[in-house]
Amino acid sequence: MTSLLLQNLLSPMVLAFVLGAIAVLVKSDLRIPDGMYQGLSIYLLFAIGLRGGGELSETPLALLWRPALITVLLGFSTPLWVYAILKFVGRFKGVDAAALAAHYGSVSAVTFTTALLFLEAVGAKAEGFMPALVALLELPAIFVALLLGRRAQTNVASTAIGLKEIVREVVVGKASLLLLGGVAIGWASGPHGVAQVAPLFLAPFKGVLVLFLLEMGMVAARRFPDFRQAGPFLLVFAIVMPIVHGALGVVLGQFAGLSLGGATVLGTMAASASYIAAPIAVRSALPEANPGYYITASLAVTFPFNLALGLPLYFAIAKLAFGGSP
């Protein structure tokens, strides 16, 4: 466990995140232009979907249906208990609890990708169709959470109109469209088609991810002062909830027939908190929600925790679940 932790902490991805945070703390003039950041996020989301779609085209339905069903059920149920905990235990307003539920029920595509690279570094491997599960977890989680938030708002005149708007925000939002579109293109063109664009979308992927995490380190560091507004409960929640969800995801992954690596990745997906798709949807559908809560918790606490400590922890839990030593 110690060696895995050290290996993960010294990976280029984690170190790039740390460098970005240091740049902000020392007041460096380092900046990544907004246009470049948007380009990096578009590249990563589309590349994840494209690769997963290519693998999905060769995956028999008999191997896919159980993990897919488990993932969808996880996506629908996670926001419900997250919302309940935040509203009735943490005493958050309904709209803020729903906004946080959208983030913690959804999935971080970058954390997911880092988990795949972590497995590669330790000599393990997940099923090739795992990127397709990212969309299956993300979409229902955001939908359920936004529906809870809409019901908590007193200024929504019609639930039917609210539902229609929520569906649109979730399905045609940038992150969902790129991810689902990439999966569809990869599935339709197959491995041969994906191989034609591999020099652009697969080979440079790790380098682009490092640049993206450099920016994420800077964004997270700028949110550190918001801890005073978020309060101690949210800080504890943003660390404990990923551990609980990570263990649950690993167990469900094993039940669904996934391999050791696949269960680790599903656990990581369940433990992660979205900071691309969910903020976009929440900002539009729940404007009354406080971004100081959901951005600070997901990006400044949960994301670095998973990046540095969570990945080795979920892998160790998976090894225990599969009968090995951590």
Task: Give the topology.
Blueprint: H1 2-9, H2 12-25, H3 34-56, H4 61-89, H5 94-105, H6 109-122, H7 130-152, H8 159-172, H9 174-196, H10 198-201, H11 205-222, H12 227-255, H13 260-271, H14 277-285, H15 291-321
Describe the structure.
- The chain contains 15 helices and no strands.
- 81% of the residues lie in helices and 0% in strands.
- The chain is mainly alpha-helical and 326 residues long.
- Mean pLDDT is 86; it is low at 155-161.
- The chain has one domain (44-321): Na+/H+ antiporter like fold.
Briefly summarize what is shown.
Helix content is 81%, strand content 0%. With 326 residues, it is an all-alpha fold.
**In total, how many domains does the architecture comprise?**
1
Task: Report the sheet-strand fraction.
Answer: under 5%
Query: Can you identify the CATH class?
Result: Mainly Alpha
Terminal CA distance reads 6 Å
